[in-house]
Amino acid sequence: MSESVVMLSHEMLAGVRRPLEAAGLRVAERWTLTEAERQATRAIVHAGEIPLTPDFLTSFPQLGLIACVSVGYDGVDVPWCRARGIEVTHAKGLNADDVADHALGLMLASWRKIVAGDAVVREGGWRDDPRLRPPPGLKGRRLGVMGLGAIGEAVAVRAEACGMQVAWWGPNPKPARWPRAESLLALAQDSDVLVVACRADASNRKAVSREVIEAVGPKGLIVNVARGSVIDEDALIAALKDGRLGRAALDVFEEEPTPAARWADVPNTVLTPHTAGGTVDSIPRMVAQAVENVRLFLSGQPVASPVDA
């Protein structure tokens, strides 16, 4: 096992080197990879939203594992990997509560104009500023959750604590204590707030389309803590500018980092830089899971958290 190489796929993962080496593993980095290291690489530790192309992966003759530190793995073609004997793992459910907390924070910050209020106070203004016209309360409002996985369920529980009425939609029916809408469009039509919390894949790219956005409407709010690919971002921006959508609160974007100029004149938005899932509690858990998956794989044992596919 000591001769096998574990490669870090992106500079954001540089901090994972130490725990991998503490586990007795030989570590290489994509940005300094030698040909000898490439030939010896058996596992890649990866940030799941970043694309790994087949052309790139086929250059590793001994590759058998892609261990995503993240919960998401939309940058990895799992069926392609499985067909070639490459296992894919992820940090299943390890940051669901943190992402749900962030989603609730985005919802409150937007719905109750908390960010706008902060700006008004810092500018020397007060509550008579026209930007701070009294908003509606949350109690009794309708929350729609797109994707009722671990994150979606955690969001629903938190919304219920705020007195909201919860419904959800996903492509696959499942037992739940909240009603499932007939379609995503039906969910949007019946929601004051739509929270996007689904797993991103090719089937739901831009699923939150212009039609869905307009169904949420000029008084509604869309919150996205899933992936930027799930929303038609151009349509979202146009609807916000035209008043066909009331507000948006986003942690993820079509392109990351998202260009600041893209949002400079977009009203009624609260934006955070893809930080929902990263806390001092969740990050060590996710790193430890990835390291354990690598260790198990290189020892010839079943991995702990394979992608369900």
Shape: elongated
Strand order of the largest sheet: 7-6-8-9-10-11
Mind telling me the C-alpha Rg?
Answer: 21 Å
Biggest pleated-sheet summary: 6 strands, parallel
Low-confidence runs of at least 5 consecutive residues: none
Q: Mean pLDDT score, rounded? A: 96
Count of individual helical segments: 12
Listing every helix as H and every strand as E from the N terminus to the C terminus, the arrangement reads EHEHEHEHEHHEHEHEHEHEHEH
Quantity of strands, as a count: 11
Helix content: 25-40%
The structure class reads alpha/beta
Strand content: 5-15%
Q: Distance N terminus to C terminus?
A: 28 Å
Textual characterization of the structure:
It is a single chain. The protein is of the alpha/beta class. Helix content is 33%, strand content 15%. It is built from twelve helices and eleven strands. The chain has helices spanning 17-22, 35-40, 54-57, 78-83, 96-111, 114-122, 150-161, 184-189, 210-216, 233-242, 260-263, 282-298; strands at 5-8, 26-29, 41-46, 65-68, 87-89, 142-146, 165-169, 193-196, 221-224, 247-250, 269-271. Strands 7-6-8-9-10-11 form a six-stranded parallel sheet. A five-stranded parallel sheet has the order 2-1-3-4-5. The two termini are 28 Å apart. The mean pLDDT is 96.
